[in-house]
Design goal:
mainly beta, seven-stranded mixed β-sheet, globular, 120 residues
Length: 120
């Protein structure tokens, strides 16, 4: 099985920075897509950023230019560097992995989430 372990959340003032990390644990050959989502109470989980194993990235419009996703494929780890944070970035951030070999490719894995709080 695959376990995603996030770290790096916390409290930061508006304009500050945080870096989230997510390590995929288990017997893993490769991971096609790793991503970050976020969710606030009463709202649906929303996509923040994705990155394929080949380096193709995609960002939500709300974070473009401020957040950067990166990966360490050798260690099955994904990062999210968050700069110029705004109070509206406050949310629980979840790590996601899809296309994890050797497991069925339609399986979708989630971390438990890490809370990011941005104070104004």
């Amino acid at each position: 099985q695959v376990q995603l372990v996030e770290s790096g959340g916390g409290l930061v003032q508006a304009g500050g920075s945080l870096r989230l990390s997510c390590a995929a644990k288990g017997i893993i050959f490769s991971i096609n897509v790793m991503a970050w989502y976020r969710q606030t109470p009463g709202k649906q989980r929303e996509l923040v950023a994705t990155m394929t194993s080949g380096g193709i990235t995609n960002y939500a419009d709300s974070v473009k230019g401020r957040f950067t996703i990166s990966r360490d494929n050798a260690n099955n780890t994904v990062y999210l560097q968050m700069n110029s944070l705004k109070p509206e970035d406050t949310a629980v951030y979840y790590c996601n992995a899809k296309g994890v070999r050797p497991f069925p490719q339609d399986m979708n894995y989630w971390g438990k989430g890490t809370l990011v709080t941005v104070s104004s």
